[in-house]
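Memo subject: From amino acid sequence to discrete backbone structure tokens
Action wanted: Derive the backbone structure tokens from the amino acid sequence.
How to read it: Take the token row as a discrete description of the fold.
Attached in line: The record itself begins immediately under this heading.
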Amino acid sequence: MSLSDLPLDELRGYRSLSVEPADFDQFWAKTLTEARGHDLAARFEPVATALSTLEVLDVTFAGFGGHPVKGWLVLPAGAREPLPVVVEYIGYGGGRGLPHSHLLWASAGFAHFVMDTRGQGAGWNGGDTPDPVGSASSFPGFMTRGVEDPETYYYRRLFTDAVRAVEAARAHPLVDASRTAVLGASQGGGITLAVAGLVPDLVAAAPDVPFLCDFPRATTITDRHPYREIGNYLKTFRGRTETVTRTLGYFDGVHFAARALAPALFSVALEDQTCPPSTVFAAFNAYAHEDKAIEVYDFNDHEGGGAYQQAAQLAWLPARLTA
């Protein structure tokens, strides 16, 4: 594979042409107000594992529509005082998986909350959270479920779940709510940007090769799924491009980035054909907080930096969580 997007010097100045809906803030304020009308009802149940240095809690909380959403809370064994918390979101098709898949952040001394992804979890890392809401015709996958109206779009539910996950994590007595960071890769990175734009008091955000950014460019520059799901939908439903584009404007990571109030560490891979680098830089360049950085992986596809990016996060995040 070779570079297929803009040169790096052009990426650093690239700006998205995504159009922000005039009622973007009102739409999300209304959505979150409705969600908070349901009792969060966060439950934390101890899980027996063979992890001698960590403790695991099986979490259930009320997300969008009051629907039950699952998660894991992983803590350093023997923790007695409230800890900074890292809330993590999962990539496309994945679920929360098994507890021993999530050792990094609790091993570094933090509380680690992993949100399951409603309706997903069959592609890799099994999930435990159904999506009880149906939709009209959609292309296989999640990108076009309810896509002709922002009220019914799948990611309205998922982004709302993600905000409620922060609230659930903060509800545990061993979590210091004032020191909350959010992170995730790919879809998880896109969700991270949404939460960074919707939750004003985070201390850090780390979107890794983020998905769900700069839809107008992403849907026309790459043939790779999941973005191609949108093109395939419009290939069948001719004449609906304007309607779908309007809906996607409410969920574009570029617009959430423009509202973010927390320091951020991004990553991008210059040979990424799943989340083309221009779409990642669109969000990075729009990101509102001046304390922001981006790790660039020159010859990588969507795997990005992998463990190298985790090392970068381990070097960057503690100072913000423990300040």
About this structure: The chain has a mean pLDDT of 96. Residues 154-170 form the longest helix (17 residues). The longest strand covers residues 175-185. The chain is about 35% helix and 20% strand.
